[in-house]
Amino acid sequence: MLVAVAASVLGTGPGSADPWDAFYKPPQKFDTRPGSLIRSAPSYAAVIPYTGANIDARTTTVMYTSTGARNRPTPVTGSVLVPRQPWKGKGDRPLVVVGSGTIGAGDQCAPSRLLRYGQAYEEMAIGVLLANGYAVAMTDYEGLGTPGDHPYLNRRSLGTSMIDMARVARNPRFGVSATAPVAFWGYSEGGFAAGSAAELAASYAPELPVFAAFAGAPAPDLADLARLGDGSLLGGGVGWVVNGFIAAYPQHRDAFLSVFNQLGRSVLRDVNSYCVFDVMRMLPFVPTTFYTKDGRPIRAYLDKEPFRTAVDEQRLGRVAPKMPVLVSQNRGDDVVDPLGTDRMVRSWRAKGADVTVETQHLPLFLPGTFFGHGIGMVGELRALSWLNEKAAALGR
User: Fold this and answer.
1) SS3 annotation, 205-216
2) Nearest alpha-carbon partner for 299 in 224, 244, 236
């Protein structure tokens, strides 16, 4: 998240006159089977303007069918990138499905769109993965780019978007073997998505050969996020969470909205069209006590319905992943509570999961600015070596 906030100073998002707009409008009829390809088009990945890094890969933008937050067939878009150098390991080139960290809720925030402008901050992780020979598929998630609202941090929606991205990307027409082994990768919202996919893969897509998953600072409990994120630099992101609840549970729309005053409702309305690049327009550092009718913080409502069920159903840790998982967490994270991540890890291990933990002991600094959260991304360095170890073992 912090990287995206920095990007807001260094660049702006793509303009509204995007020649790709038509691609993101789903056809009226499409194959409703999860993981089915709806359409694809050759694309490209831009130079990252603030690092100078270049992604040398064959890139394709895809639209595919996934299962949305409401358990219905839903078109989702994303990107498939295949490095031009051959895979040096044994067997098929592995496919790593990457989930983006928090990028916003507006359609212009879709990672596949930003990738073409050099503004998808996951490009730094993607570039390293490509340099190590992996094919990479990055999902845009439900409602980013395509019609509808983005169900932010929704376990079902993000998990199935990742899994079905793997299904559609394993296609020789994109340069990926149909039998390629699969790994999930993500940090922040992407870590939540990777953790969700790791939990759901065995039941949702038992045919996929998933050999590893990396979940960095995965925000496994929205109650913790509501506490630490309140009044932070990206405090207006509470609107993304609540709008995501409404997208997933539309029958409770009025109940969700009933706690908000006029200012709160305007925040919910406005942020639905914003990316993290617009952070300075999202009332930074304003506590949620300003948004509610009775002046209580939003976390005070989470033990009452319909918030209680909405929060509870997104919690990670109740289903043990069947593949090895690496969890990375900075103890000085100012957004994702390390204790919540600890609870998730303990629960997974108690259920028999193979979980490795990479801990950063970086001090809490400038709380509420996302500094402690962003700097935890250094854990991706260890994640790469761990992933390489797991990939090397595939050929044995």
Assistant:
1) CCCCCEEEEEEE
2) 224
**CA nearest to 313, candidates 393, 377, 191, 220:** 220
| Dist CA 195 CA 184 (whole Å) | 8
Are residues 119 and 13 in contact, defined by beta-carbon separation less than 8 angstroms? Answer: yes
Residue listed under structure tokens 């108690």: 350
The CATH code of domain 231-311 reads 1.10.260.130
Q: Beta partners for 43?
A: none
Q: Which residues of 192-216 are buried (b: 16+ CB within 10 A; e: fewer)?
A: bbbbbbbbbbeebbeebbbbbbbbb
For residues 30 and 36, the answer to whether their CB atoms sit within 8 Å is yes
Which conformational region is residue 33 in: left (phi greater than 0), alpha (psi within -120 to 50 degrees), or beta? beta
- 3-class state of residue 60 by DSSP: strand
Q: Each residue of 270-287: pLDDT tens digit? A: 999 999 989 999 999 999
Helix (H, G, I), strand (E, B) or coil at 75: strand
Is it true that domain 2-31+39-222+315-393 has CATH number 1.20.200.10? no
Query: Which DSSP string do the residues of 322-350 spell out, in sequence order?
Result: SS-EEEEEETT-SSS-HHHHHHHHHHHHH
Structural contact between residues 133 and 83, judged by C-beta atoms closer than 8 angstroms: yes
Segments making up each domain of the chain, as ranges: 2-31+39-222+315-393, 231-311
Contact (CB, 8 A) for 181 and 209? yes
Calpha distance 40→42 (Å, rounded): 7
Look up the pTM and report it.
0.93
- Is the CB of residue 220 less than 8 Å from the CB of residue 195? yes
Q: Is the preceding peptide bond at 338 cis, omega within 30 degrees of 0?
A: no
Q: Which amino acid is at 182?
A: V
Express each pLDDT in 187-242 by its tens digit.
999 999 999 999 999 999 999 999 999 999 999 999 999 999 999 999 999 999 99
